[in-house]
Amino acid sequence: MSAQAVLFDSPGPKGRRNIAVGNVVGTVFVLGVLAWVIVQMAEKEQFDPAKWAVMVEADTWEFYFLPGLQNTLIAAAYAIVLAMIFGLLFGVGRLASNALIRGFCSVIVEFFRAVPVLIMMIAGWFIAALVLNVPPEDAPLFGVIVGLTLYNGSVIAELVRSGVHGLAKGQGEAALAIGMTRGQSLRSIELPQALIAMLPSLISQFVVILKDTALGYIITYPELLRSARLIGSNAPFPILQAFFVAAVMFIVINIVLSFAAGRLARRIGGRSGAAGKQAPGVGITTGMAGVADTRGEATGS
Amino acid sequence: MSDFLEVLSNYDIAGAYWVNLKLTFFAALFAFMLGTFLAMMRISPIASLRMAGAGYVNLVRNTPLTIVMASGILVLWPQLGLQFSDDFATNFFWLAVLALTIYHASFVTESIRSGVNTVPVGQAEAARAIGLSFLPAARLVILPQAFRGAIAPLGNTLIALIKNSTVAAAASVPEVSVMMRTMIENDANYVVPIFLTIAVGFVIIVVPVGLITTYLSRRLAVSR
């Protein structure tokens, strides 16, 4: 927070006083909003100790939260691996010199990027159950993985493409000059560099995948949110409390991942120049800056 | 093929898409207002507002939209008594708009902030040099350029919002994904054609929005 203050001059005595007053007013405003929320919740008996006690009972965790978290992580793990494979295949496909392959891969990638993840999940779920005869209890997991893989795979394909395009042109030219084919140059010169440059964006995309597993709630996959829903439907109906705990779990995992992505971006930034590069601007650039550019792309649910 | 067209004619697909577009319109409007406000907080000289803005963005952006949406109809309405209308359908619709607004406002904030980052430092220094303080400098010099620089990320946010309007299914709003599920359950033989039909609808809506915002972001970019 120290490398900012370009929008406003380092304040003089009067400015400092104004900012101090503003700070107090701002704090009062923010605390006021929070206090209002808390009062509203208290009035609706959301601080009933019985409701919160359920959240710390061993049974709640053993039978609901932990299995839910486990299912969330399983779906995310499958989807991350498969989306990486999908993304590498189609990303390289879009760079191919053969126009037919390039066109085909472009159509696939653009199509799956435009279709909502939930629509693909529902389709995958029913196709598994009705066409592929997947056992009914496995069909929702199948649907979640299909939806996440196709969407995020397409986004990763775009990352691969832009990663390779972001490399200095000399890299490919040098490879061709020493007699490598286009494929060899891609495989052993350009892709490895592009992958390192895109690591931070990749991790941001993993955050999206993890978040989107919660869509499995809608197609009855027993992930974290659905477990929370089940806890909430038992007396004393601590639905707010259960959602709160589930949300905290998602937020903690994702912030840790985002933080790792930010750290990586800064470490890599000096080396490759392709990632985390940002025009010097007016805004306040905190840790997430390098990631923020790509997050615009990664606005999945 | 003609059998399938007959199946399609049994459903009001356009009506379902219309619900998605209405959700998108209102959520985009409110998210843009809230997001601009939060972005102003995040670049202001007042530390407490800056921290509040950053806190909002980091918490909301890392929460799944499905949780926000489900909280709308399972917590906000029944537990905390937030009601927009006595009519169930209308109430669910506005709760879904609220959830979409809360979620996407954080992305709007980040888009505008990235737009602010496209404005060279010299502009702010020049604004200060001619004696403008924070608010006039932001209003007259920085933000007009920042919005133009933010068109591309805002377009991405809008596209994400269009697609995420399907998550209103978690709030029992009768939009496209709910309709698709009903269609497949009734006409299980046509699961793949039904998916392709619905999917192509989204391609038709989303691709032009992407092309237009890309065109606008080039056209309106401040040339430097």
Task: Offer a quick outline of the entry.
The complex is a heterodimer of chains A (301) and B (224). Chain A is mainly α. Chain A has helices at 13-43, 49-53, 58-95, 99-114, 117-131, 139-165, 169-177, 182-212, 224-232, 239-272, 289-295.
Tell me about this structure.
The complex is a heterodimer of chains A (301) and B (224). By secondary structure, chain A is mostly helical. Chain A contains 11 helices and no strands. Chain A is flat, with a radius of gyration of 24 Å. The longest helix of chain B is centred in the first third of the chain and has 31 residues, at 13-43. Helices cover 78% and strands 0% of the residues of chain B. Chain B is mainly α. Chain B is flat, with a radius of gyration of 21 Å. Chains A and B meet through helix 1, helix 4, helix 5, helix 8 and helix 9 of A and helix 3, helix 4, helix 5, helix 6 and helix 7 of B.
Quickly list its features:
heterodimer; A: 301 residues; mainly alpha; flat; B: 224 residues; 10 helices
* Helix and strand composition category of chain A: mainly alpha
Q: Largest interface, with Cβ-Cβ < 8 Å?
A: A-B, 74 and 77 residues
- The secondary-structure class of chain B comes to mainly alpha
Principal-axes shape call of chain A: flat
Are there runs of chain B of 5+ residues with pLDDT below 50, and where?
none
**What is the radius of gyration of chain B?**
21 Å
Could you tell me the number of beta strands of chain A?
Answer: 0
Poorly predicted runs of chain A: 273-279, 284-301
> Major sheet of chain B: size, sense and barrel closure?
none
- Counted by DSSP, the helix tally of chain A is 11
Instruction: State the end-to-end distance of chain A.
Output: 29 Å
Helix coverage percent of residues of chain A?
A: over 70%
Annotation, overall tally of beta strands of chain B: 0
Distance between the termini of chain B: 55 Å
Mean pLDDT of chain A: 84
Oligomeric status of the shown chains? heterodimer
H-E order of chain B = HHHHHHHHHH
Task: State the shape of chain B.
Answer: flat
